[in-house]
Write a structure and sequence with these properties.
mainly alpha, AhpD-like, 9 helices
């Protein structure tokens, strides 16, 4: 198996060093995802920019979590599901939402379930959603803008999920208590 470097600011390519230092200042540690992505300064910079853009969409914390975790679970990302569980708690997202996403059980509201259903359709059908799928999304109160915001969320998660699959990124210590594997039906603590 090919091993990928989990970089520090000292071992990273020059173009990634400032970004890793910024991550450490923001989080108190360098997230493993950023440390692995640092091998490509362009990937790391792009990922951080897309993350910032998606986090500033019209979606609220619950909806951001639904999009992120729906994709993370669908892609079976061993790193992002625990990380976004911790992030959801820090964003004050109801644990029932996180548990339902992790366990692939019904969400607490029809509106959030419609967002998950549409996000899954977007991922599984590679963007080729049908008119009835769009109509169902709109009927739940979402907009054309939200369609494009889901696409932005998919772009962000493809970068992170694929990186973590390839690099087998170790889960960061603050998130190990939220460890997850596809098919686990154990709710987050």
């Amino acid at each position: 198996m090919t091993e990928f470097t989990v970089h520090t600011a000292e071992t990273a390519p020059e173009g990634s060093r400032k970004s890793l230092n910024d991550s450490k200042a923001a989080f108190g540690f360098v997230p493993g995802l950023h440390a692995v992505m640092a091998e490509s300064p362009q990937l790391l910079a792009s990922y951080k920019a897309v993350h910032e853009a998606f986090a500033s969409t019209s979606f609220n914390a619950d909806e951001l979590t639904v999009v992120w975790q729906t994709i993370n679970v669908e892609h079976a990302c061993h790193y992002c599901v625990p990380a976004h569980t911790g992030i959801a708690y820090s964003m004050k997202v109801d644990a029932a939402i996180s548990d339902a996403l992790r366990n692939e059980t019904p969400l607490p509201t029809a509106r959030l379930e419609a967002l998950r259903t549409f996000t899954l359709a977007m991922v599984r059908q590679r963007g080729e959603v049908t008119d009835p799928q769009l109509e169902a999304f709109f009927a739940a109160g979402y907009t054309r803008q939200n369609v494009f915001e889901v696409i932005l969320g998919v772009a962000q998660k493809v970068m992170s999920n694929y990186t973590n699959h390839i690099a087998q990124t170790p889960v960061d210590a603050p998130f190990t208590k939220f460890a997850w594997q596809k098919g686990d039906k154990v709710a987050a603590e």
